[in-house]
Amino acid sequence: MNLTQIKRESVPLHAEVAALLRHQIMSGRLKAGERLPALSELTEKFGVARMTVRQAMDALQDEGLIERFAGKGTFVRDVEIPTRQTLNMKAELSELQTMVAQLEVSVVGDGSLATLVDVDGTAYRQMKRIHNQAGDPFCQVDLLLEDRVYQMAPERFETDIVVTVLKDLGIAVKSARQRVTISYADVEIAEALGLPVNAPVFRVLREFFCDKGNLIYSATLIYPGDKLELDIEFAV
Predict the structure, then answer these.
(1) Are 101 and 211 part of one and the same domain?
(2) What pLDDT, on the 0 to 100 scale, is given for residue 1?
(3) What is the DSSP string of 169-193?
């Protein structure tokens, strides 16, 4: 991977590297006390010169986000993570089903069957795909689907929109929720969706539960910032 191919125009390369690491620290993905990869690893990962990574590290150290120790490495400092205010709202599940019906699925990876994983004693199928709209990437999806449900139509779940298949099968969803946050495109997301690195994106966590309160379906969806908008109507 070469970061120079997906960087934002007019943004210095070292600033892009610093922004990628800063986002990970301030979002909590990199924890306080966690050791950052070695300089050589970051150089290879981003496809940039060592001096570029050094400049990025200098910027993060000046901001108080990291600290360096000779012979030990670079570590994340204990910094205050910004809190988010939650705005609760309600919507009809049918609205979501209508929205996704027009999308198409592209499997990410080698196209093999969904991976079987265990989550707290329950078997799920893990899948990763791109949803396309009119031939263009619309969102990246990482999802878990309860294996019991997956076995009802494995071929369709591999190739179709999961929410649509659940509706067609008549799977009873007792409750559903989703949380939307504004985030950024890391290297993987930028490459998958054809975005500049660090471009704004919506990160959506979507979960469906059965009448027993068990998780049926969970998905993390990443939308480009210009592909989604929220229209909230307040009750007065």
Answers:
(1) yes
(2) 61
(3) HT---SEEEEEEEEEE--HHHHHHH
Mark whether 216 and 110 lie in a shared domain.
Answer: yes
Give a yes or no: residue 58 inside a domain.
yes
Structural domain span for residue 44: 3-76
Question: What's the rounded Cα separation, in Å, for the pair 81 and 78?
Answer: 9
Residue 203, judged by CB atoms within 10 A of its CB (0-12, 13-18, 19+), counts as middle
CA distances from 83 to 5, 80, 86, 202 (A): 33, 9, 10, 17
Per DSSP (E only), the strands in the chain are 66-69, 73-76, 104-107, 115-119, 122-133, 136-146, 175-184, 200-209, 215-224
Residue 99: pLDDT over 90: no
The answer to whether residues 100 and 217 belong to one domain is yes
Count the domains in the chain.
Answer: 2
- DSSP, collapsed to helix, strand or coil, labels residue 202 as strand
Q: What is the pTM of this model?
A: 0.81
76, 103, 131 — which closes off a domain?
76
Query: Biggest alpha carbon distance in the chain?
Result: 62
Q: Kindly report the number of other CB atoms within 10 A of residue 163's CB atom.
A: 22
CB contact at 8 A, 105 and 131 = yes
pLDDT of residue 113: 65
Q: In the prediction, which pLDDT does 110 show?
A: 56
User: CATH number of the domain that 209 lies in?
Assistant: 3.40.1410.10
